[in-house]
Design goal:
This is Cobalt ECF transporter T component CbiQ. It is a multi-pass membrane protein. Its main location: membrane. It is found in: Cell membrane. With 253 residues, this protein is mainly α. The chain folds into 2 domains: 151 residues, no CATH class; 68 residues, no CATH class. It has 10 helices and 2 strands, in the order αααααββααααα. β1 and β2 form a beta hairpin. α5 runs antiparallel to α6. The termini are far apart. The relative contact order is 0.17.
Length: 253
């Protein structure tokens, strides 16, 4: 898949979770999220146990709580939506601090908030313990369509290319004394966006021609494909299997 590619979510470490093959962690995370979504919203205690499971995995991976919590900020829009549901949903109403809240809306808000937070936390843990290059190899090993893997691979790499182009253009503007301070500078920023598109397109063409000249024919070579052992699969399955037991108890109790 090419050279290594680091990302801001990844936290380098030598824990047992870091050592697991990427496709094991991908399958375990997907299964865990599926189990969490399948849990009845009334089983409040079950979501508490899921949070304990996430905290246990984070401790095993040596991921600090602050690192994990800071990256949960990405779900703020969903949190705001969840807080609005009790006010806009219909159905039975209940009074709280002088406000009229919908009971179905309260349950819906809890459902979105609990399941969304757990899903985001599991995804952050996956990204924190797995490099992007390894994630792409894991998707390929899980038989994701090769075209989708290629699109994801180029999207990640060209994201950095475009960011670097934008950084250089910003430095050039500042070196000429330009600072965007109001509406009257929007025209300059619009021209910057257009120039960024042209530069990115031209650079992409050059990169593609360079790849073709080196033998690229629609698929990237896999340099190091690591197969998982039964012990590693069992270790990765501990999280979703335990969560499944909690989910079944949530439906039966």
């Amino acid at each position: 898949m090419g050279a290594g590619h680091a990302h801001k979510l990844f936290r380098h470490g030598h824990s047992p979770v870091h050592a697991l093959p990427a496709h094991c962690k991908l399958a375990a995370t997907f299964a865990f999220v599926l189990v969490v979504v399948s849990t009845p919203r009334g089983a409040v205690w079950a979501f508490g146990l899921y949070a304990v499971l996430i905290a246990t995995v984070a401790a095993a991976a040596r991921i600090p709580a602050g690192f994990l919590l800071r990256r949960l900020v990405i779900e703020v829009p969903f949190v705001l939506f969840a807080f609005l549901m009790p006010f806009v949903a219909e159905g039975e109403r209940v009074g709280f601090l002088g406000m009229s809240l919908s009971v179905p809306g309260l349950w819906g808000a809890w459902n979105v908030l609990a399941k969304g937070t757990l899903g985001v936390a599991a995804s952050v843990l996956l990204a924190s313990t797995t490099e992007l290059r390894a994630l792409l190899l894991g998707l390929q090993r899980l038989r994701l369509p090769p075209l989708l893997v290629q699109i994801a691979s180029f999207m990640i790499r060209y994201g950095d290319v475009i960011t670097d182009e934008l950084r250089r253009m910003s430095i050039a503007r500042r070196s000429r004394g330009f600072e965007a301070r109001g509406v009257r500078h929007w025209g300059v920023l619009a021209k910057t966006a257009g120039a960024l598109f042209i530069r990115s397109y031209e650079r992409g063409e050059r990169v593609y021609l360079a790849m073709v000249s080196r033998g690229y024919a629609g698929s990237m070579p896999v340099i190091d494909d690591v197969a998982a052992t039964r012990a590693q699969w069992a270790y990765a399955a501990a999280l979703p299997v335990t969560a499944l037991a909690v989910c079944l108890m949530g439906w039966t109790l």
